Amino acid sequence: MSAETRPIQGSIIARAYDYRAPAGEPRLVSVTPLPEANWDGEMCSWAPDAASPSAYGFLPASFGAAPQSSSNDDGPRDIALDRPPTRVIKDPYPTFSAVAVDMKNNEIILQDENLFQIMSYDGDTNTPPTAALSEPKRVIGGHHTKIEFNCGLYVDPESGDIYSVNNDTIDTLVIFSREVRGDMPPTRELRTPHRTYGIDVNEATDELFMTIQDPPYIIFYDKQAKDNDQPKRIIRGNKTELADAHGLSLDSKNGWIFVANYGNAASYREQAASGRQASDGGGGSRIPGSGRFVPPSITIYPIDGEGDIAPLRKIEGPRTQFNWPAHIFVDEEHGDLYVANDGGDSILVFKVTDNGDVAPTRFIKGPRTQIKNPTGISVDTKNDEIVVANMGNHRATVFPRTANGDVPPKRVIRSAPADQPALQIGNPGAVAYDTKRDEILVPN
Amino acid sequence: MAHPQIAVFARLAKGGEGPRRLIFGQNTLLSRTMHDIRYNERRDEIYVANPFAQAILTFRGDAGRDSKPIRIIQGPKTRLIGGDTLEVDAVNDEIIVPLGREVLVFPLLGEGDVAPIRTLKGGDENGWRSGGGVGVDNVHEFIVTDATRTDDPRIQTRERGYARGRNSILVFNRLDDGDVFPLRIINGPRTGINAIRQMAVQPEGGWVVIAQISNGGIPEPEGTFVGVWSIYDDGDVPPRWRIEGKPGNILKKPRGVALNPNHKELLVSDMRLNAVLTFSFPEIF
Questions:
Q1: Which of A342, B9, B187, B240 could cross-link A326 (Cys pair, CB 3.0–4.6 Å)?
Q2: Which residue of chain A comes nearest to B19, CA vs CA?
Q3: What is the pLDDT of residues A341-373, one digit of tens each?
Q4: How far is the C-alpha of B174 from the C-alpha of B197, rounded, in Å?
Q5: According to the model, what pLDDT value does residue A271 have?
Q6: Is there a contact between B280 and A39 if contact means CB atoms under 8 Å apart?
Q7: What is the ipTM, given to two decimal places?
Q8: Does any CB of chain B come closer than 8 Å to the CB of residue A357?
Q9: What whole-number distance in Å separates Cα of residue B96 and Cα of residue B177?
Q10: Lateral strand order in the sheet of B128-137
Q11: Residues A378, A322: Cα–Cα separation, whole Å
């Protein structure tokens, strides 16, 4: 593959892929950060304003007592500041949160949760060390796509349709056909509960499965469900031992559902419900003060399970090495269960029949692997490879299916210069300032 | 959101500069939905909530990867049901947690299964329900929260999207306890408020700063801004200052606000940009 040098938009808020047509090959880029602005002498002037009448009609007038002080009464009012920020902390490059392999079309599909895009790469892409990054063949992203906090991914093995899980805010599963690219509306949409994460499809029965993180449950739809269609059934309740549910994968051969759990738990008054009742999320049914931390786990259920059912088995314990298990993938052909172990910077491999506190049969971990905060995992059984989406370093890493230990990847798809840190800011719901260290604290 | 973490950046970091450290991993007991975070210089501590495990977590100020919380408030006496926001009163050593129909106040050094020391009760009887934004003014002795009208029909129909409610700023006495009514209510069309998120208070000046997300269910909604009111404002009054979400201000979808009094700056986290913006804002310091 040839590498091409091309500058990108200099702005620190540049969305790297907004300004370039995808080429499907590596390119060299340069980034020039904006100089820090100087706002000396540029502040808006103060202007007094008359007091405005109270108009809070929803409470009795007696609710509002007279102000106890009027220290700010003569201050400014209604001043719209045209004031760009002096500094912006933003990762301008894609950050991969999930991955799926389109084996029919030899493509690797990656979720970019930083710039809210779906990126499709040629399956053989390998970013040379000298290249700044590799360009995807196709990008879907922008306001009209309704992609936001896109964390889960499924690709239809026949049609190539992409199912993209929006974890937050939009609360909609968006489906795109292979023809869609750029800022186009989804081909199909399905309104979903809040906090969906994992996704898989039983192609034999045309059933679509998703996890909801909290309140934790598994929800089942017809694969062709759309708009406000209701789920067919759910697995939910205190017996399920679901605890901040994340990745989901099916073993249709043995009839099992696997779910990864972070371990943040509470008890619920409302037990299993089905259909319409499930779609409200049920957050109000938590029992106050019942919260607890339990070990991270993978729980296994019958594929046709419904209601408040106990897991068939549970993989859990210190030997598992679980540390925020994120997406998981069942390789039915070889009977293996792959775990993207976000907090452990590792990929763990178990047998689908494992139970209890068991060590993984294989794991990929170490500095040579280039695995960092892996949240996505997929197995390409056609090419006998596994593909890892690493949130921590702008990379998707491809390994032989049976890789074990601290081994280098066969190929790397890199979406940023090699030395560019991945900030992993995602849905920054708040911010704080450490006045002692002069540091900014940003939670996801 | 695929990866919970607290990223710690140098104040002058910009562009794609990496964080100094990241707080993440199983031992941290963090979850997603950290919709608030506070730092207390007096004790050099960081505070966040874990709503899924109904817990309030306290970390050392220098916490990093896989750091364990140094204190956890969690258990039946807490009455925590899933609060994702909090405020810390570093002067009076209290943690304030809004939970819809009530606002709970815990001792800052509380650990384990501790009961709240005060409760501001709202609900249908008292006509308000906190949406989650919260701040404390320990100079003028007020607690502020954002509010949802409990008679708002959109609540009853569970209309989708974040725009439902959270359209008011309520001001209470800091030591209020039991069934309480707000001292003052900032609400109405002139305020421009329809969806408050994180709140910050600059107590010396008596300023209340809010992030207005407008509608989180739309990728790039209109009407977003960061607004500043006086703690003594009342009724349908526009903010004293506002930074609107528009290209000239870079801002798109503000979710979090914090103040840096050392350098007279306003920090804003933007959920559409996945970014933190620092604005010079000497007017309120």
A1: A342
A2: A423
A3: 999 999 999 999 999 999 999 999 999 999 999
A4: 20
A5: 54
A6: yes
A7: 0.96
A8: no
A9: 12
A10: B128-137, B142-149, B168-173, B184-187
A11: 18
